[in-house]
Protein backbone atom coordinates (compact mmCIF):
# COMPACT_ATOMS: atom_id res chain seq x y z
CA UNK A 1 0.00 0.00 0.00
CA UNK A 2 1.28 3.47 -0.84
CA UNK A 3 -0.72 5.72 1.45
CA UNK A 4 -3.08 5.02 4.31
CA UNK A 5 -5.36 8.06 4.64
CA UNK A 6 -6.89 8.40 8.10
CA UNK A 7 -10.29 10.11 8.18
CA UNK A 8 -11.44 11.11 11.65
CA UNK A 9 -15.08 11.46 12.74
CA UNK A 10 -14.99 15.26 12.39
CA UNK A 11 -13.37 15.26 8.93
CA UNK A 12 -16.23 14.09 6.74
CA UNK A 13 -15.41 16.20 3.73
CA UNK A 14 -14.65 14.89 0.25
CA UNK A 15 -12.98 18.19 -0.68
CA UNK A 16 -10.48 17.96 2.17
CA UNK A 17 -6.72 17.85 1.64
CA UNK A 18 -6.79 14.21 2.75
CA UNK A 19 -7.88 13.29 -0.77
CA UNK A 20 -5.32 15.42 -2.64
CA UNK A 21 -3.46 13.08 -4.98
CA UNK A 22 -5.46 10.07 -3.78
CA UNK A 23 -4.95 7.11 -6.11
CA UNK A 24 -7.55 4.34 -5.67
CA UNK A 25 -5.14 1.86 -7.23
CA UNK A 26 -2.53 2.30 -4.50
CA UNK A 27 -4.08 4.21 -1.59
CA UNK A 28 -6.68 3.34 1.03
CA UNK A 29 -8.91 5.28 3.42
CA UNK A 30 -9.14 4.12 7.02
CA UNK A 31 -12.01 5.02 9.37
CA UNK A 32 -12.80 3.52 12.75
CA UNK A 33 -15.55 3.63 15.37
CA UNK A 34 -13.48 3.34 18.54
CA UNK A 35 -15.15 2.94 21.94
CA UNK A 36 -12.48 4.99 23.75
CA UNK A 37 -13.41 8.06 21.69
CA UNK A 38 -16.80 8.00 23.42
CA UNK A 39 -15.63 6.99 26.89
CA UNK A 40 -12.52 9.13 27.45
CA UNK A 41 -15.01 11.95 27.58
CA UNK A 42 -18.22 10.51 29.00
CA UNK A 43 -20.17 11.41 25.85
CA UNK A 44 -23.85 12.14 25.58
CA UNK A 45 -25.66 9.45 23.58
CA UNK A 46 -26.76 11.99 20.95
CA UNK A 47 -23.17 13.19 20.49
CA UNK A 48 -21.96 9.63 19.88
CA UNK A 49 -24.92 9.02 17.56
CA UNK A 50 -24.20 12.17 15.56
CA UNK A 51 -20.57 11.25 14.95
CA UNK A 52 -21.21 7.58 14.12
CA UNK A 53 -24.20 8.25 11.90
CA UNK A 54 -22.37 10.96 9.94
CA UNK A 55 -19.34 8.65 9.64
CA UNK A 56 -21.41 5.75 8.30
CA UNK A 57 -23.13 8.03 5.81
CA UNK A 58 -19.74 9.32 4.69
CA UNK A 59 -18.45 5.75 4.33
CA UNK A 60 -21.39 5.05 2.00
CA UNK A 61 -20.40 8.05 -0.12
CA UNK A 62 -16.82 6.81 -0.35
CA UNK A 63 -17.99 3.34 -1.33
CA UNK A 64 -20.32 4.76 -3.98
CA UNK A 65 -17.28 6.46 -5.48
CA UNK A 66 -15.27 3.27 -5.39
CA UNK A 67 -12.75 4.76 -2.97
CA UNK A 68 -11.03 1.85 -1.20
CA UNK A 69 -12.02 1.98 2.46
CA UNK A 70 -11.28 -0.03 5.56
CA UNK A 71 -14.07 0.81 8.03
CA UNK A 72 -14.08 -0.61 11.57
CA UNK A 73 -17.60 -0.73 12.93
CA UNK A 74 -18.40 -0.61 16.62
CA UNK A 75 -18.87 -4.12 18.04
CA UNK A 76 -17.31 -5.78 15.00
CA UNK A 77 -13.66 -5.32 15.96
CA UNK A 78 -11.67 -5.93 19.15
CA UNK A 79 -9.89 -2.57 19.44
CA UNK A 80 -10.67 -0.09 22.24
CA UNK A 81 -8.72 2.85 20.81
CA UNK A 82 -6.50 4.19 18.06
CA UNK A 83 -3.25 2.53 19.14
CA UNK A 84 -4.25 -1.09 18.74
CA UNK A 85 -6.58 -0.50 15.79
CA UNK A 86 -4.18 1.51 13.68
CA UNK A 87 -1.11 -0.58 14.51
CA UNK A 88 -3.01 -3.69 13.38
CA UNK A 89 -3.98 -1.95 10.13
CA UNK A 90 -0.39 -0.86 9.52
CA UNK A 91 0.88 -4.39 10.21
CA UNK A 92 -1.55 -5.93 7.74
CA UNK A 93 -1.27 -3.43 4.87
CA UNK A 94 2.28 -2.04 5.41
CA UNK A 95 1.66 1.46 4.03
CA UNK A 96 4.59 3.60 2.89
CA UNK A 97 2.98 6.69 4.42
CA UNK A 98 0.24 7.74 6.83
CA UNK A 99 -1.77 10.84 6.00
CA UNK A 100 -4.16 12.82 8.17
CA UNK A 101 -5.66 16.29 8.03
CA UNK A 102 -5.00 18.42 11.16
CA UNK A 103 -7.22 16.76 13.81
CA UNK A 104 -9.70 18.65 15.97
CA UNK A 105 -7.79 18.05 19.17
CA UNK A 106 -4.23 17.90 20.38
CA UNK A 107 -4.50 14.47 22.02
CA UNK A 108 -5.45 12.75 18.76
CA UNK A 109 -2.64 14.43 16.87
CA UNK A 110 -0.14 13.31 19.51
CA UNK A 111 -1.49 9.75 19.55
CA UNK A 112 -1.33 9.42 15.77
CA UNK A 113 2.20 10.78 15.70
CA UNK A 114 3.29 8.28 18.36
CA UNK A 115 1.71 5.39 16.45
CA UNK A 116 3.46 6.42 13.24
CA UNK A 117 6.78 6.66 15.14
CA UNK A 118 6.27 3.31 16.77
CA UNK A 119 5.48 1.66 13.45
CA UNK A 120 8.30 3.52 11.70
CA UNK A 121 5.97 4.91 9.00
CA UNK A 122 6.38 8.48 7.67
CA UNK A 123 3.48 10.64 8.81
CA UNK A 124 2.08 13.70 7.02
CA UNK A 125 -0.32 16.17 8.64
CA UNK A 126 -2.14 18.25 6.04
CA UNK A 127 -3.76 21.63 6.73
CA UNK A 128 -7.52 21.77 7.16
CA UNK A 129 -8.93 23.84 4.28
CA UNK A 130 -12.36 23.92 5.91
CA UNK A 131 -11.27 26.95 7.92
CA UNK A 132 -10.98 30.45 6.51
CA UNK A 133 -7.60 31.22 8.03
CA UNK A 134 -4.78 28.73 8.24
CA UNK A 135 -2.90 28.22 11.45
CA UNK A 136 0.34 29.82 10.25
CA UNK A 137 -1.49 33.00 9.29
CA UNK A 138 -3.26 33.02 12.64
CA UNK A 139 0.13 32.63 14.33
CA UNK A 140 1.40 35.66 12.41
CA UNK A 141 -1.64 37.67 13.49
CA UNK A 142 -1.11 36.60 17.13
CA UNK A 143 2.62 37.26 17.19
CA UNK A 144 3.52 40.07 19.52
CA UNK A 145 -0.07 40.71 20.66
CA UNK A 146 -0.49 40.74 24.40
CA UNK A 147 -4.26 40.91 24.16
CA UNK A 148 -5.34 39.15 20.96
CA UNK A 149 -8.94 40.38 21.03
CA UNK A 150 -11.74 39.01 18.88
CA UNK A 151 -12.72 42.44 17.63
CA UNK A 152 -9.34 43.09 15.96
CA UNK A 153 -9.25 39.61 14.50
CA UNK A 154 -12.82 39.85 13.20
CA UNK A 155 -12.18 43.13 11.41
CA UNK A 156 -9.05 41.72 9.83
CA UNK A 157 -11.07 38.70 8.62
CA UNK A 158 -13.79 40.93 7.18
CA UNK A 159 -11.13 42.82 5.23
CA UNK A 160 -9.35 39.64 4.15
CA UNK A 161 -12.49 37.91 2.87
CA UNK A 162 -14.33 41.01 1.68
CA UNK A 163 -17.47 39.74 3.46
CA UNK A 164 -19.85 42.58 4.35
CA UNK A 165 -17.33 45.09 3.05
CA UNK A 166 -17.93 48.13 0.91
CA UNK A 167 -14.41 48.73 -0.40
CA UNK A 168 -12.36 49.47 2.70
CA UNK A 169 -15.39 50.18 4.87
CA UNK A 170 -17.84 47.90 6.60
CA UNK A 171 -21.23 47.65 4.90
CA UNK A 172 -23.70 49.91 6.72
CA UNK A 173 -20.88 52.05 8.11
CA UNK A 174 -20.38 50.06 11.32
CA UNK A 175 -18.47 46.93 12.37
CA UNK A 176 -21.21 45.88 14.75
CA UNK A 177 -24.86 46.52 15.48
CA UNK A 178 -24.97 45.39 19.10
CA UNK A 179 -27.28 48.29 19.94
CA UNK A 180 -30.00 46.72 17.81
CA UNK A 181 -29.21 43.16 18.89
CA UNK A 182 -29.27 41.25 22.15
CA UNK A 183 -32.78 42.07 23.29
CA UNK A 184 -34.96 40.05 25.66
CA UNK A 185 -38.39 38.95 24.42
CA UNK A 186 -40.25 41.03 26.97
CA UNK A 187 -43.42 40.01 28.78
CA UNK A 188 -45.25 38.92 25.64
CA UNK A 189 -42.63 36.25 25.00
CA UNK A 190 -41.27 35.09 21.69
CA UNK A 191 -44.61 34.24 20.08
CA UNK A 192 -44.57 31.59 17.35
CA UNK A 193 -41.00 30.62 16.52
CA UNK A 194 -40.68 28.75 13.23
CA UNK A 195 -39.98 25.10 14.03
CA UNK A 196 -36.50 24.17 12.76
CA UNK A 197 -36.25 21.61 10.00
CA UNK A 198 -35.48 18.21 11.54
CA UNK A 199 -34.43 15.00 9.85
CA UNK A 200 -36.11 11.71 10.72
CA UNK A 201 -33.64 8.95 11.47
CA UNK A 202 -33.02 6.80 8.39
CA UNK A 203 -31.92 3.17 8.46
CA UNK A 204 -28.27 4.08 9.13
CA UNK A 205 -29.11 6.40 12.01
CA UNK A 206 -31.54 3.89 13.49
CA UNK A 207 -28.82 1.23 13.46
CA UNK A 208 -26.44 3.66 15.18
CA UNK A 209 -29.02 4.52 17.83
CA UNK A 210 -29.38 0.81 18.44
CA UNK A 211 -25.63 0.32 18.76
CA UNK A 212 -25.28 3.32 21.06
CA UNK A 213 -28.07 1.97 23.27
CA UNK A 214 -26.25 -1.35 23.40
CA UNK A 215 -22.66 -0.17 23.96
CA UNK A 216 -23.17 3.09 25.86
CA UNK A 217 -26.41 2.57 27.76
CA UNK A 218 -25.04 4.18 30.95
CA UNK A 219 -23.94 7.37 29.18
CA UNK A 220 -25.80 10.64 29.76
CA UNK A 221 -28.54 12.02 27.58
CA UNK A 222 -31.10 10.63 25.21
CA UNK A 223 -31.45 9.99 21.48
CA UNK A 224 -35.25 10.19 21.58
CA UNK A 225 -35.28 13.63 19.87
CA UNK A 226 -32.39 12.98 17.48
CA UNK A 227 -33.18 14.84 14.25
CA UNK A 228 -29.84 16.47 13.38
CA UNK A 229 -28.51 16.81 9.82
CA UNK A 230 -26.04 13.94 9.29
CA UNK A 231 -25.24 14.31 5.57
CA UNK A 232 -24.07 17.26 3.44
CA UNK A 233 -27.47 17.35 1.72
CA UNK A 234 -29.29 17.59 5.04
CA UNK A 235 -26.86 20.23 6.29
CA UNK A 236 -27.55 22.31 3.17
CA UNK A 237 -31.30 21.99 3.75
CA UNK A 238 -30.87 22.98 7.42
CA UNK A 239 -28.93 26.07 6.31
CA UNK A 240 -31.63 27.06 3.84
CA UNK A 241 -34.30 26.60 6.49
CA UNK A 242 -32.38 28.78 8.95
CA UNK A 243 -31.69 31.56 6.45
CA UNK A 244 -35.30 31.68 5.33
CA UNK A 245 -37.10 31.36 8.64
CA UNK A 246 -34.86 32.32 11.57
CA UNK A 247 -31.97 34.48 10.39
CA UNK A 248 -34.07 37.69 10.23
CA UNK A 249 -34.71 37.57 14.00
CA UNK A 250 -31.36 36.01 14.93
CA UNK A 251 -29.65 39.30 15.78
CA UNK A 252 -32.19 40.91 18.09
CA UNK A 253 -32.82 37.71 20.05
CA UNK A 254 -29.45 35.94 20.00
CA UNK A 255 -28.97 36.49 23.74
CA UNK A 256 -32.57 35.86 24.85
CA UNK A 257 -33.68 32.76 26.75
CA UNK A 258 -37.14 31.24 27.12
CA UNK A 259 -38.62 28.30 29.02
CA UNK A 260 -39.41 25.32 26.78
CA UNK A 261 -37.76 26.89 23.71
CA UNK A 262 -34.44 25.14 23.18
CA UNK A 263 -33.56 26.57 19.75
CA UNK A 264 -35.22 29.99 19.46
CA UNK A 265 -33.73 31.73 16.39
CA UNK A 266 -30.42 29.88 16.41
CA UNK A 267 -29.10 28.02 13.37
CA UNK A 268 -28.36 24.56 14.87
CA UNK A 269 -25.50 24.31 12.37
CA UNK A 270 -22.48 24.03 14.68
CA UNK A 271 -22.20 20.24 14.66
CA UNK A 272 -22.73 20.01 10.89
CA UNK A 273 -19.93 22.52 10.40
CA UNK A 274 -17.65 20.94 13.00
CA UNK A 275 -17.99 17.50 11.38
CA UNK A 276 -17.30 19.27 8.04
CA UNK A 277 -20.64 18.33 6.47
CA UNK A 278 -20.93 21.94 5.37
CA UNK A 279 -18.32 24.63 4.91
CA UNK A 280 -18.38 27.86 6.89
CA UNK A 281 -17.86 29.79 3.66
CA UNK A 282 -21.08 28.33 2.22
CA UNK A 283 -22.94 29.25 5.41
CA UNK A 284 -21.53 32.78 5.38
CA UNK A 285 -22.25 33.32 1.68
CA UNK A 286 -25.88 32.20 2.07
CA UNK A 287 -26.32 34.55 5.02
CA UNK A 288 -24.73 37.55 3.35
CA UNK A 289 -26.73 36.90 0.17
CA UNK A 290 -29.98 36.92 2.18
CA UNK A 291 -28.97 40.31 3.59
CA UNK A 292 -28.13 41.67 0.14
CA UNK A 293 -31.55 40.55 -1.17
CA UNK A 294 -33.19 42.39 1.70
CA UNK A 295 -34.51 39.15 3.23
CA UNK A 296 -32.75 39.76 6.55
CA UNK A 297 -31.72 42.99 8.29
CA UNK A 298 -28.04 43.88 8.35
CA UNK A 299 -27.91 43.70 12.17
CA UNK A 300 -28.92 40.03 12.09
CA UNK A 301 -26.62 39.18 9.20
CA UNK A 302 -23.64 40.92 10.82
CA UNK A 303 -24.38 39.34 14.22
CA UNK A 304 -24.37 35.90 12.62
CA UNK A 305 -21.32 36.49 10.41
CA UNK A 306 -19.36 37.61 13.49
CA UNK A 307 -20.01 34.24 15.17
CA UNK A 308 -18.60 32.21 12.30
CA UNK A 309 -16.06 34.47 10.59
CA UNK A 310 -14.97 35.90 13.94
CA UNK A 311 -15.44 33.67 16.97
CA UNK A 312 -15.26 30.27 15.31
CA UNK A 313 -11.99 30.97 13.49
CA UNK A 314 -10.53 32.90 16.43
CA UNK A 315 -11.05 30.17 19.04
CA UNK A 316 -9.50 27.59 16.74
CA UNK A 317 -6.41 29.75 16.31
CA UNK A 318 -6.14 30.33 20.06
CA UNK A 319 -6.53 26.62 20.77
CA UNK A 320 -3.67 25.58 18.51
CA UNK A 321 -1.35 28.40 19.59
CA UNK A 322 -1.93 27.63 23.30
CA UNK A 323 -2.09 23.84 23.46
CA UNK A 324 -1.08 21.71 25.30
CA UNK A 325 -0.69 24.17 28.24
CA UNK A 326 -4.19 25.55 27.78
CA UNK A 327 -5.74 22.48 29.43
CA UNK A 328 -4.02 23.16 32.75
CA UNK A 329 -4.78 26.83 33.16
CA UNK A 330 -6.65 27.77 36.31
CA UNK A 331 -6.05 31.49 36.77
CA UNK A 332 -8.65 31.95 39.51
CA UNK A 333 -7.44 28.86 41.36
CA UNK A 334 -10.92 27.32 41.33
CA UNK A 335 -11.04 23.97 43.10
CA UNK A 336 -14.71 23.08 43.75
CA UNK A 337 -16.30 19.94 42.30
CA UNK A 338 -18.87 20.14 39.50
CA UNK A 339 -22.29 19.72 41.14
CA UNK A 340 -23.83 16.31 40.43
CA UNK A 341 -27.00 17.93 39.04
CA UNK A 342 -25.08 18.91 35.90
CA UNK A 343 -25.55 15.27 34.82
CA UNK A 344 -29.25 15.06 35.70
CA UNK A 345 -30.83 18.54 35.65
CA UNK A 346 -32.21 17.70 39.06
CA UNK A 347 -32.17 21.10 40.77
CA UNK A 348 -34.70 23.67 41.99
CA UNK A 349 -32.88 26.44 40.15
CA UNK A 350 -35.18 26.77 37.18
CA UNK A 351 -32.69 28.30 34.73
CA UNK A 352 -30.20 25.50 35.36
CA UNK A 353 -32.86 22.78 35.30
CA UNK A 354 -34.16 24.07 31.94
CA UNK A 355 -30.73 24.37 30.37
CA UNK A 356 -29.42 21.04 31.63
CA UNK A 357 -32.57 19.04 30.88
CA UNK A 358 -32.65 20.45 27.39
CA UNK A 359 -28.96 19.58 27.03
CA UNK A 360 -29.67 15.99 28.07
CA UNK A 361 -32.69 15.75 25.76
CA UNK A 362 -31.11 17.24 22.64
CA UNK A 363 -27.34 17.53 23.16
CA UNK A 364 -27.94 21.23 22.56
CA UNK A 365 -28.12 24.53 24.41
CA UNK A 366 -27.64 27.88 22.77
CA UNK A 367 -24.76 30.20 23.44
CA UNK A 368 -26.18 32.27 26.27
CA UNK A 369 -27.45 29.18 28.06
CA UNK A 370 -23.91 27.76 27.87
CA UNK A 371 -22.21 31.02 28.85
CA UNK A 372 -24.60 32.72 31.26
CA UNK A 373 -26.40 29.79 32.90
CA UNK A 374 -24.29 26.61 33.20
CA UNK A 375 -20.98 28.40 32.59
CA UNK A 376 -21.74 31.31 34.89
CA UNK A 377 -22.88 29.08 37.74
CA UNK A 378 -19.68 27.00 37.56
CA UNK A 379 -17.58 30.18 37.49
CA UNK A 380 -19.37 31.76 40.46
CA UNK A 381 -19.16 28.53 42.42
CA UNK A 382 -15.45 28.20 41.64
CA UNK A 383 -15.54 24.80 39.94
CA UNK A 384 -12.20 23.44 38.81
CA UNK A 385 -11.92 24.36 35.09
CA UNK A 386 -10.93 20.84 33.99
CA UNK A 387 -14.17 19.45 35.37
CA UNK A 388 -16.19 22.13 33.62
CA UNK A 389 -14.30 21.33 30.41
CA UNK A 390 -15.00 17.59 30.74
CA UNK A 391 -18.72 18.28 31.08
CA UNK A 392 -18.97 20.59 28.07
CA UNK A 393 -16.94 18.25 25.88
CA UNK A 394 -19.28 15.40 26.80
CA UNK A 395 -22.75 16.83 26.49
CA UNK A 396 -23.05 18.84 23.27
CA UNK A 397 -23.45 17.32 19.80
CA UNK A 398 -21.16 20.03 18.44
CA UNK A 399 -18.43 19.53 21.04
CA UNK A 400 -14.94 19.20 19.58
CA UNK A 401 -12.03 20.29 21.72
CA UNK A 402 -10.63 23.04 19.47
CA UNK A 403 -13.87 25.01 19.85
CA UNK A 404 -15.09 23.79 23.22
CA UNK A 405 -11.93 24.36 25.27
CA UNK A 406 -11.29 28.07 24.55
CA UNK A 407 -14.99 28.79 25.02
CA UNK A 408 -15.06 27.01 28.36
CA UNK A 409 -11.67 27.84 29.84
CA UNK A 410 -11.24 31.22 28.23
CA UNK A 411 -14.58 32.81 27.63
CA UNK A 412 -16.67 31.24 30.34
CA UNK A 413 -14.33 30.41 33.26
CA UNK A 414 -11.63 33.12 32.85
CA UNK A 415 -9.15 30.31 33.55
CA UNK A 416 -6.73 31.75 30.97
CA UNK A 417 -6.40 34.96 32.96
CA UNK A 418 -7.81 37.19 30.24
CA UNK A 419 -6.17 35.92 27.08
CA UNK A 420 -9.57 35.62 25.42
CA UNK A 421 -11.98 37.73 27.44
CA UNK A 422 -10.97 41.13 28.76
CA UNK A 423 -12.78 40.43 32.05
CA UNK A 424 -14.72 37.60 33.67
CA UNK A 425 -18.30 37.24 32.39
CA UNK A 426 -19.96 37.50 35.80
CA UNK A 427 -23.48 38.62 36.57
CA UNK A 428 -26.12 38.06 39.21
CA UNK A 429 -29.49 36.36 38.81
CA UNK A 430 -30.86 39.72 37.70
CA UNK A 431 -29.17 39.29 34.32
CA UNK A 432 -30.98 35.98 33.82
CA UNK A 433 -34.22 37.60 34.96
CA UNK A 434 -33.80 40.38 32.39
CA UNK A 435 -32.99 38.06 29.48
CA UNK A 436 -35.49 35.25 30.15
CA UNK A 437 -38.70 34.17 31.81
CA UNK A 438 -36.91 31.55 33.89
CA UNK A 439 -37.12 33.41 37.20
CA UNK A 440 -40.92 33.63 37.01
CA UNK A 441 -41.14 29.85 37.60
CA UNK A 442 -38.34 29.63 40.15
CA UNK A 443 -38.65 29.49 43.94
CA UNK A 444 -35.67 31.84 44.35
CA UNK A 445 -35.57 35.62 44.25
CA UNK A 446 -33.01 37.04 41.81
CA UNK A 447 -32.96 40.40 43.60
CA UNK A 448 -32.01 38.85 46.94
CA UNK A 449 -28.39 37.99 47.77
CA UNK A 450 -28.57 36.85 51.36
CA UNK A 451 -32.07 35.77 52.45
CA UNK A 452 -33.28 32.22 52.75
CA UNK A 453 -34.76 32.28 49.24
CA UNK A 454 -31.95 34.35 47.76
CA UNK A 455 -31.10 33.34 44.22
CA UNK A 456 -27.91 31.25 44.34
CA UNK A 457 -26.55 33.13 41.32
CA UNK A 458 -27.00 36.46 43.11
CA UNK A 459 -25.50 35.30 46.40
CA UNK A 460 -22.57 33.63 44.66
CA UNK A 461 -22.09 36.67 42.42
CA UNK A 462 -21.50 39.02 45.35
CA UNK A 463 -19.44 36.36 47.07
CA UNK A 464 -17.35 36.04 43.88
CA UNK A 465 -16.76 39.80 43.82
CA UNK A 466 -15.61 39.67 47.45
CA UNK A 467 -13.40 36.60 46.97
CA UNK A 468 -11.62 38.21 44.01
CA UNK A 469 -11.69 41.81 45.19
CA UNK A 470 -7.96 42.23 45.37
CA UNK A 471 -7.44 40.79 41.91
CA UNK A 472 -9.99 42.92 40.07
CA UNK A 473 -10.67 46.12 42.01
CA UNK A 474 -8.14 48.06 39.99
CA UNK A 475 -8.52 46.07 36.79
CA UNK A 476 -8.93 48.46 33.82
CA UNK A 477 -12.02 46.71 32.37
CA UNK A 478 -13.52 44.96 35.42
CA UNK A 479 -12.79 47.54 38.13
CA UNK A 480 -16.11 49.35 37.69
CA UNK A 481 -18.06 46.19 38.44
CA UNK A 482 -15.97 45.46 41.53
CA UNK A 483 -16.42 48.94 42.91
CA UNK A 484 -20.11 48.09 43.40
CA UNK A 485 -18.87 46.31 46.50
CA UNK A 486 -18.44 49.74 48.09
CA UNK A 487 -22.22 49.81 48.50
CA UNK A 488 -22.15 46.88 50.93
CA UNK A 489 -21.91 47.32 54.71
CA UNK A 490 -19.78 44.83 56.64
CA UNK A 491 -22.87 43.20 58.01
CA UNK A 492 -24.31 42.70 54.50
CA UNK A 493 -21.02 41.24 53.36
CA UNK A 494 -21.06 38.68 56.12
CA UNK A 495 -24.71 37.73 55.48
CA UNK A 496 -23.93 37.15 51.80
CA UNK A 497 -20.89 35.07 52.72
CA UNK A 498 -23.00 32.87 54.99
CA UNK A 499 -25.64 32.40 52.32
CA UNK A 500 -22.96 31.51 49.74
CA UNK A 501 -21.41 29.10 52.22
CA UNK A 502 -24.80 27.46 52.83
CA UNK A 503 -25.30 27.04 49.06
CA UNK A 504 -21.89 25.43 48.72
CA UNK A 505 -22.59 23.06 51.62
CA UNK A 506 -25.97 22.16 50.15
CA UNK A 507 -24.36 21.29 46.81
P1 LIG B 1 -25.76 29.90 16.41
O1 LIG B 1 -26.14 30.68 17.60
O2 LIG B 1 -26.73 29.78 15.31
O3 LIG B 1 -24.39 30.52 15.88
C1 LIG B 1 -23.93 30.26 14.55
C2 LIG B 1 -22.59 29.59 14.54
O4 LIG B 1 -21.59 30.46 15.00
C3 LIG B 1 -22.48 28.36 15.39
O5 LIG B 1 -23.01 27.25 14.71
C4 LIG B 1 -20.99 28.26 15.61
O6 LIG B 1 -20.37 27.56 14.56
C5 LIG B 1 -20.54 29.71 15.58
N1 LIG B 1 -20.29 30.22 16.93
C6 LIG B 1 -21.13 30.96 17.69
N2 LIG B 1 -20.54 31.32 18.84
C7 LIG B 1 -19.32 30.75 18.82
C8 LIG B 1 -18.25 30.74 19.74
N3 LIG B 1 -18.29 31.36 20.91
N4 LIG B 1 -17.15 30.03 19.39
C9 LIG B 1 -17.06 29.40 18.22
N5 LIG B 1 -18.05 29.37 17.32
C10 LIG B 1 -19.16 30.05 17.61
N6 LIG B 1 -19.48 25.72 19.90
C11 LIG B 1 -19.19 24.57 19.29
O7 LIG B 1 -19.29 24.47 18.07
N7 LIG B 1 -18.75 23.48 20.00
C12 LIG B 1 -18.62 23.52 21.35
O8 LIG B 1 -18.25 22.53 21.96
C13 LIG B 1 -18.94 24.74 22.03
N8 LIG B 1 -18.83 24.83 23.38
C14 LIG B 1 -19.14 26.02 24.00
C15 LIG B 1 -18.98 26.11 25.39
C16 LIG B 1 -19.26 27.30 26.05
C17 LIG B 1 -19.06 27.42 27.52
C18 LIG B 1 -19.70 28.41 25.30
C19 LIG B 1 -19.98 29.70 25.99
C20 LIG B 1 -19.86 28.32 23.94
C21 LIG B 1 -19.58 27.14 23.26
N9 LIG B 1 -19.71 27.02 21.86
C22 LIG B 1 -19.38 25.83 21.25
C23 LIG B 1 -20.11 28.19 21.03
C24 LIG B 1 -21.62 28.32 20.79
O9 LIG B 1 -22.29 28.33 22.01
C25 LIG B 1 -22.16 27.21 19.90
O10 LIG B 1 -21.42 27.16 18.70
C26 LIG B 1 -23.61 27.42 19.53
O11 LIG B 1 -24.40 27.54 20.68
C27 LIG B 1 -24.12 26.28 18.65
O12 LIG B 1 -25.45 26.46 18.31
P2 LIG B 1 -25.91 27.01 16.89
O13 LIG B 1 -25.24 26.22 15.83
O14 LIG B 1 -27.39 27.04 16.90
O15 LIG B 1 -25.25 28.44 16.89
FE1 LIG C 1 -32.01 31.07 37.98
FE2 LIG C 1 -31.94 32.63 40.18
FE3 LIG C 1 -33.70 33.15 38.23
FE4 LIG C 1 -33.98 30.98 39.77
S1 LIG C 1 -34.09 33.12 40.44
S2 LIG C 1 -34.21 31.07 37.55
S3 LIG C 1 -31.85 30.39 40.11
S4 LIG C 1 -31.48 33.24 38.07
UniProtKB/TrEMBL annotation:
InterPro entries: Crypto/Photolyase_FAD-like_sf, PhrB-like, Rossmann-like_a/b/a_fold, UV-DNA_repair_photolyase. Coiled coil: none annotated. This is Cryptochrome/photolyase family protein. It comes from Lamprobacter modestohalophilus.
